[in-house]
Amino acid sequence: MTDLLWLRQDLRLHDQPALIAAAHSGAVIPVYVLDDEAPGAWKIGEAQRWWLHHSLRALAASLEKKGSRLILRRGRAAEALPALVDEAGAERVHAVRHYEPWWRHAEAALGDRLCLYDGNHLTRIEDVTTGGGAPYRIYSSFWKGLQPHLPPGKPLAAPRTIPAPETWPKSDSLADWTLLPTAPDWSGGFDWTPGEAEALRKIKQLALDGYEERRNLPSEEGTSRLSPHLHFGEVSPRTVWHATGGDDITFRKELAWRDFTDGVVLALPDYADANGRDRYDKLPWRSGTAAQRDLRAWQRGRTGYPIVDAGMRQLWQSGWMHNRVRMITASFLVKHLLIDWREGERWFWDCLVDADYGNNAVNWQWIAGTGVDANMFSRIMAPIRQSEKFAAGDYIRHWVPELKHLPDAAIHDPDAAGCRPGDYPAMLIGHREARERALAAGKKVR
Ligand code: FAD
Question: What ligand 1 atom has the least distance to the C-alpha of 226?
Fold first, then answer.
């Protein structure tokens, strides 16, 4: 008997329950389908295509070591998979469960040939509900609701060998997919090694001492940088959980955010496009030439706010941004520039190597104050105060070289210190003026 193993955001061999089940039942054809059609506007972004190329290459090499192969197909998964099932004379398709709406549509096309396994979350998120059976909308309540399901099960070992079919179906060539950037190549600053081996190496070396405070300091390497590995499923959250100790509770709580955000998009599949609270549809976002110019300045890291510019340049150059700075830059776009959160969400989607449908949408709506949680639009972060509080001086000096000679006393607000260099832009808008404009816009919604 031959079965397909449908790989999506679970590009690993260890703790891969779909692979283990498929390998137990007979010959296995591992397949990855590049579906740029079904997700529509949410097709894989540019930075992630770079990651995906390297991750698939690493996975193919690992499969070969186990006597197997990786078959690549391009097109609508809902059509490509049933076609491959027929072509290979396969019985079933084994896959790990995911919650992005386009995956769920594709799954429906496979009917009862599809066997789904839980493996990319700490628990089955459909099981974490309020007493009334509704999904949680607030993270702290979700965390409480998750407790009876913790700790997650122990990770499963990778199979020793993977039975191969008598004949292999044809595969696309990875190079033909041109996932890597062509001229200009903007990936020169990507200091990442995609793939399961690197994810497992990082976990072995995970140093979470002082995580509670250090995770907020952009100048330090105080977080795990596992997010792209987790997004592509090069490592399972169960493996990460069990690699940490019980005193790393703050870290484990962050890890559980992934389960929470997928619970939100399971309940509200278009959460990346629609305000969680529809009264915010009335919010008078800025548009037109001046707003476009400001959006561009934000994307390029030329707003005149050093912490915002450092974050946006880190994102563009490295494909990642520190979490505290994601919050500051997102709040700045939405509140200071009064630009629709969906513009920022899209930019992050294209630039982040860890861009994730649930995590990105839920965090953007949380910052914007438009979401299903209790956060308010009127909550406005003060970027300069945040920069000082979280000692971002070295971080700014690294990412904004025009300011690298400035001392701590001047780096957060060179204008106020009277030492803004000529090649660094003036602030797009003052903090007080921006705050008043945002609060006035927020009042129109009420
Ligand atoms: P660590 O602090 O080491 O945390 C461990 C893991 O927990 C992370 O790898 C991640 O998988 C998870 N995690 C931590 N914080 C969050 C969070 N707030 N929400 C969801 N999961 C979390 N994260 C993404 O993975 N993809 C995104 O597209 C994304 N977009 C974001 C957009 C905005 C506006 C904001 C404010 C945050 C966003 N985040 C996103 C969450 C967070 O910034 C990143 O997960 C984190 O910075 C990744 O770094 P790390 O792996 O070092 O995190």
Answer: 51
